[in-house]
Amino acid sequence: MRLENHYRRAVRSCRGSGFSLIELLIVIAIILIIVAIAIPNFLRSKIAADESSAVGNVRTITTASVVYNTTWGNGYPPSLGNLGGTGTTATCDQSNLVDPLIATAPYTKSGYVFGYVGQDGTVSLGGGCTSQGFLGYLVTATPLNSYTGVRSFCSDEAGVIHYDFSGATSASETACNALPGL
After folding, report:
1. Domain chopping of the chain, boundaries
2. Distance (Å, whole) CA 132 – CA 26
3. Is the pLDDT score of 148 beyond 60?
4. Which of 152, 153, 156 lies closest to 173, judged by CA?
């Protein structure tokens, strides 16, 4: 008898210590509300970080183009590939001035595609170079999709970085310079 009473008390105390279905549903609803608030803020933060990275990379390409121009005597680089390189010795064709991710196809980093186009005519071939450089250039950064960025960016030899809220790639230096600057 004594053992039976002890068993009944133990069963009763176990039943009272669990969660009811209503309590569980309330907790799940609260978690879903918190997630619904947090995810859009997280996405906005990620877009801002990707855009900041793209601006930094456009600035790096712009600076590297000026360094290339003064170092190799071949004008501005013939292509984005000329600014990259993986070797230990810099050459006119692989100057090792930018991250190899940006300087090799598909030219993407941090959710942006980078482009580089020579402008304003070519210069005389510099010593040790296999391709003629240019008198000017246009560098662009275009978001891969709306989750990686909203704005596109561009710059030319003037060094001012411009942005476009439509996310479209600038077709020319004139179109780039018509956009607002950072």
Report:
1. 2-177
2. 69
3. yes
4. 156
Q: Is 73 left (phi over 0), alpha (psi -120 to 50) or beta?
A: left
CA nearest 117: which of 64, 81, 167, 71? 81
Give the tens place of pLDDT for each residue, 113-134: 999 999 999 898 888 889 999 9
Cβ distance 54 to 149 under 8 Å?
yes
**Residue 101 identity:** L
Euclidean distance between CA atoms 89 and 109, whole angstroms:
24
Which pLDDT score, from 0 to 100, does residue 38 have?
83
* pTM tops 0.85, yes or no: no
What's the token pair of residue 139? 């560098």
Residue with tokens 């456009």: 58
Q: Please write down the HEC assignment for all residues of 79-91.
A: CHHHHCCCCCCCC
